[in-house]
């Protein structure tokens, strides 16, 4: 799990993200994402790695309470 999380935050992020966006078997996805998945990942779905990453995220999520997160955007202001 630790190794999967390290790879996800580093060199393999783009491949794992491409699998999640274009490699699903049971849903319709945009053609360009399916083509990117075929070309970039060579039809490898990294099933075990993504399962380990999910498990690591679930375990890490229990270490800290949920907090409010503010995302910035152009012309926006934080609440008072």
Report on this model:
This protein is an all-alpha fold. It is built from 4 helices and no strands. The longest helix has 15 residues, at 47-61. The protein is extended and about 50 Å long. The model has no long low-confidence stretch (mean pLDDT 88).
Report the principal-axis shape. extended
Strand elements, count: 0
Q: Helix coverage percent of residues?
A: 40-55%
Main sheet summary: none
Summarize the helix and strand pattern as letters.
HHHH
Provide a short characterization of the protein structure.
The protein has 80 residues and is mainly alpha-helical. Helix content is 54%, strand content 0%. The longest helix has 15 residues, at 47-61.
Topology:
Blueprint: H1 2-8, H2 13-22, H3 31-41, H4 47-61
Task: Please name the defining characteristics of this protein.
mainly alpha; 54% helix
């Amino acid at each position: 799990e630790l190794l999967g999380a390290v790879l996800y935050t580093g060199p393999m992020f783009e491949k794992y993200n491409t699998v999640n966006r274009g490699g699903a078997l049971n849903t319709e996805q945009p053609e360009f994402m399916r083509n990117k998945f075929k070309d970039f990942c060579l039809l490898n779905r990294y099933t075990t790695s993504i399962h380990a990453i999910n498990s690591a995220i679930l375990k890490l999520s229990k270490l800290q309470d949920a907090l409010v997160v503010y995302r910035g955007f152009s012309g926006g202001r934080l609440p008072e």
